[in-house]
Amino acid sequence: MKKIILCIIVMLWCQFSVGQQTYTVTEGQLYCISPAKGIVIKKGSRYYTLEIEVDFEGKQEIMKSVLKPIKKNEAEALSKHENSISYDQIDGRYDFKKLQELQFTYTEDDTNMTSYEIRKFRQFNPGYFAIFAIKQENDTVNTYLKEWLPCIFIQFDQKRILYTYDNVTLYLIPTPNKIQLFGLHDPSVPELKVEKKALTKDEIYAFSSNAFAELNKNYFRIDTLPNKKLQLKNRFNEILISKNYDAIDLRGTSIIGHTGKTMDLYNLALKKLNQDPLKAVNFNPWSIQMIENNTLKSIDRTGQELKTKFNYPFHLVYEPTTKEYFYELVITKRNDNFTLKMRNLDHIAHEDQYTVSDSISLQNTSEILEICLKNKMKDTVKSSVDFSIYNRPYQKGRISMHVPFDDVIVTFLRKDGTFGINYLHYFLKPENKNQYFEDDQPFTGYQKVQAIVYKAPFYQIKKNDLYLLYPIQKEFRYKKIADFQGYFARYERANGEKGWLDFKGNEYRDD
Fold this sequence. Notes:
Layout: E1 8-15, E2 22-24, E3 29-34, E4 38-43, E5 46-57, E6 60-70, H1 72-79, E7 102-109, E8 115-125, E9 128-137, E10 140-156, E11 159-164, E12 170-174, E13 179-183, E14 193-196, H2 201-219, E15 220-224, E16 230-234, E17 247-251, E18 254-259, E19 262-266, E20 278-283, E21 288-292, E22 295-299, E23 325-334, E24 337-344, E25 357-361, E26 368-372, E27 378-383, H3 399-402, E28 409-414, E29 419-423, E30 451-455, E31 458-463, E32 466-470, E33 478-481, E34 488-493, E35 498-502, E36 507-509
Parallel strand pairs: 2-10
Antiparallel strand pairs: 1-6, 3-4, 4-5, 5-6, 7-8, 7-14, 8-9, 9-10, 10-11, 11-12, 12-13, 15-16, 17-18, 18-19, 20-21, 21-22, 23-24, 23-27, 24-25, 26-28, 28-29, 30-31, 31-32, 33-34, 34-35, 35-36
């Protein structure tokens, strides 16, 4: 009689409720857990390997358990393997909350020991494990994320283990003496070193940068309570952050909870990063800036305050054109006549064999003492026009005839000691103007002012002893305004009010 191989597939459909991230095995009794083969169960006189597949569609859980029969002698051989674990060997009283303070490491190195890689397996938050790789080559150390792994519990009667699915299938099994880590389809059992250590800023950044989109889509749930407050839960309907908020914002690879005009900040390990309510927060690849107790602080993603001060604007909103080309502009003066000189540059803004020079005279300069490009006589600008198509060996073109610079902003000092600001279009002669340029005259109110200084990316304009920042403001309101420290600058109004200003012009007044 032909032998028939039986494959039993059990489909379980259910809706998540509190604490339901556990798959309870009812198909039989646990016989052993073995490297490479995984879970082996016994049902009556028959033996099966059991695999669990987990998927989610919205808030609906889909679990599929797959039983594949194996022979008795094969099951017995697996159970006798030196690394196999039986039901009796599982520590049923193990506190899995300990895992959030532990990491399991092993080292891979090369033969001459000039480079090596440390692998770290650890729980990142209640729903995910992560495998980090810390690679050292000579004197350079880099941290990167190998895998991020959602997890559930598998329950065998009164005992349970942790199971990661998606990407890599692993079984984390507590025994009285140590934690064992088995991989499905992988016969090797790594020698793990157990360490008690917190997540590092590099590990949090690596996980957040790679896994945020998945957690945002598949793991986090924002629940509206009867009092209209919001609460952050996971897809199992478990509460992740106990505090309720008016709004919850998942952005910047972090979690922000809003209460009125203040906020709390959490990383993806669900650690709160502020001590007191925040007024504002801004993210960048290296750090997080926040305003706490009227003070600007910079922290890493563990919440550790950084001592490095940011004195440059790193958060510039920039939308490049389809293709950009560089040109050098220089404004010179001889007697009372101003000349605009220009050169085309290569793709890294350097001179090359195709660079040509051109110059044109400017108009409307009789009352002008000095014209500046961002506080200087020279600047490199970008244009969508490629001059090379007009600059052929047999026919040299002129830059001024093909590349418009009407929209370049210039500042100027008048002979009466006042300052102004305008488009370069105002100083171009008719034959050099771009006929399609539309001057919406945004600088009408900024003529004959006390001072204009370019402080990237804004123009600081002073009139009647008050300042504004162009283009984010239209009203002269500040008695003092300091340089930007990253995304924020300190201000003081004429009425004595003090606070912080951000790159979008929002103000955060001191308490």
